[in-house]
Write the structure tokens for this entry.
Amino acid sequence: MIMATDIKAPSKASYVLEEQVGFMLRVAGQRHWGIFQSLVPLGLTPTQFSALIKVLELGECSQNELGRKTAMDVATIKGVVDRLRARDLVAVKPDPSDKRRAMVVPTEQTKALAHGLRQAGRQISEDTLSPLSEAERRTFLALLAKMS
Amino acid sequence: MIMATDIKAPSKASYVLEEQVGFMLRVAGQRHWGIFQSLVPLGLTPTQFSALIKVLELGECSQNELGRKTAMDVATIKGVVDRLRARDLVAVKPDPSDKRRAMVVPTEQTKALAHGLRQAGRQISEDTLSPLSEAERRTFLALLAKMS
DNA sequence: TTAATATCGTTTGCATGCAAACAAAGCGAG
DNA sequence: CTCGCTTTGTTTGCATGCAAACGATATTAA
């Protein structure tokens, strides 16, 4: 486990690694990942969780489109869908009107979990933003949106 | 009586994936990664770059300590150091006073690259933050630091 | 209709990123 | 000095994350 106290910044160098936005984004992501792991049901990963939430929202979605809507590469979304399918959290069926397409749909088990998943998601976001005040959270999310 | 709040979507209960901090951190990281790839010398990855910058700053560092100071797991830093060593960007030598330790040092080639690496790093951070004004950048980095 | 183009999905390869189990070496209390 | 604990590094396993090349299918333009 990486501890925050392990990272110390020298103050006078011309290039301070710890002050660079890329480094800080990576560390913030690590902290979020830890919070995510402790609160998410079923041991889902962030990408698996995102895919489930999105496919629940859409009801039905081609694999590639699901990847685009969850910001995942085609190779990444394939692996995610494969693992979700192996756990019977989504099903894949052919699209009669397009033989290339693999339509992804949530299973009944997943539909029953929907409320709990969203509840966990809200708590994860809440805990991740807990170092910030309400006003700071709004500011941070607005600026983060500009960077996406 | 019917209130306006009865008609509007229950924002407390909804869950919009694209507005969650974890999702946005991941997408912002992806954008940064693209900028990084287009500007970094030698095709270095962000973790390889971080390790090089840090070992140049320290001059000499045990492998585990290098991992802690760059926010990398012991397994991750091992892979990074292995790949840097394979490209002759760092060298590893034993510590006479502690037989467990593998001391990592930059090679001459890396020392010669130091200035260019830091210059590229500054440009990468600049480009990543380009959607924000100067004031917004200071605010964003300050809040991001609180989240790390 | 045919040919060029675009889209969908798969596969391979490389590089993180972390948990867990493990071995070797150092250290501190008794 | 010895036992227990800590630290350092390694290895394995799993899951992203993306580039690139590929085949199959759709769509569009000539």
